[in-house]
């Protein structure tokens, strides 16, 4: 077990090295001078020179990169040009919003998706199966930001049940937090629910075809019990893989959903930085979210070993 | 066996998959409307008419009008044409580079590790955020949206091609070709790639669908094709400020996206079942 984990961990190192190189390289994509793209056309030479200095663009490329890696390794993501504060601090301050949104959506999507998938697999080929599959395909085809807008029109403006945006920290008021998070989390969860339901169904179908399920049925156990106790644990591995994959699209989706519901999360910070070309925040933000993704996938690898003892070998 | 009977056999096999028929039908219908945009759209998508602004859907304006008095149906039709063009270009570019990268990684074992680590690193970024950053940094234009989306969708495609190449390269017919003296590139092209096509085709159908969804997000955020050119995303972005008085400006382009993407997803599902029931490449 420690050996397996060590292997996974070592494999993540070159990936993280490349991830931070790519985050840094964003600034090379800018046509022309990154410093003047941050300022408007009326900027003076001195202003441009000052920004160039701040971004470290006057150094040779290898020095810029060395400097970047040096800072990243010590956990320093640099200074925002626009906010005049540390990028790391700004990201950490907004992290709870994004993480709680993504986590809430993941729980919703996993509970709904896995139960719908099991339900469909148990009624393979029947009307219930077809209904679940059609609904999940439809869920996969809906653009999340648009769904968010529709939810705002219906539940916030039309029925007035929930606020259309804004954020209340959970430390301030639990009810307020729930009220501001419900619509964004539902929006984010719906697409993923479809994905999880489809994957759960096909993983369950693979398992339910096997001999030990027939044996368990034949010895008179209730079918529901067989599915949950003998089927589900054996289908957990592919389901876990899916949960790891959607961690990435949840983070990406959270970026978009935060924008729709004006939630002050990491995504909104980064999109704001993209619009104003605040490169340190873009670079730091990209690296930050990618690092979270890599860590989540390491945790999924760890869970594999917990769920399936064979992996430990 | 004569060719016509084998043709009918293929048609019958295809028709046995309702998702191909329904999905393919939807995609063909959408493509036909997009191709004939100039003929079927009732108005000029860019013509504003302030006396007719924010009209509710009616016999003259099926989808209503927006805050400039532009016909929403015409804008959705032209927007759909642009979205499909972007999606198609992304499919072609991703198909090309995904195949190239994936097959080289899968076939030349020494290159496998460096190439795939690079793809892993690209996949660590949330795809939509990667596309947003690239498109915004390069500057909002149709061409840059295509570049951004291709960068975001290529790594996964390369990984799928690689894994089928890994299986096919161990087949006996590849060994036979090598014994006959065929070179690496010849084997890769005629024997390995030709037999790895099924998962690629299925994957590219889903790439098409996700390109349409992602283009809409990019336009909505404001880093897509610049206005006044209609695209699904920027029609929705336009309608956002009038969502309460004129929800139709937002609703209809969204429904159009659902129809396109649903059609492509159904088609991809059906093709997957038809080409190889064992392969699993999710959208």
Describe the structure.
The complex is a heterodimer of chains A (313) and B (283). Chain A is mainly α. Chain A contains twelve helices and no strands. The model of chain A has no long low-confidence stretch (mean pLDDT 84). Chain B has 283 residues and is an all-alpha fold. The longest helix of chain B has 36 residues. The two termini of chain B are 38 Å apart. The C terminus of chain B is likely disordered.
Uncertain segments of chain A of ≥5 residues (pLDDT<50)? Answer: none
Number of contiguous helices of chain A:
12
Strands of chain B, total number: 0
Percent in helix of chain B: over 70%
Order of helices and strands of chain B: HHHHHHHHHHHH
Whole-number average pLDDT of chain B?
84
Q: What is the helix/strand order of chain A?
A: HHHHHHHHHHHH
Radius of gyration of chain A: 24 Å
Model regions low in confidence, pLDDT < 50 over at least 5 residues of chain B = 279-283
Strand content of chain A: under 5%
Tell me the number of helical segments of chain B per DSSP (H or I, 4 or more residues long).
12
Cα separation of the termini of chain A? 7 Å
Largest interface: A-B, 53 and 46 residues
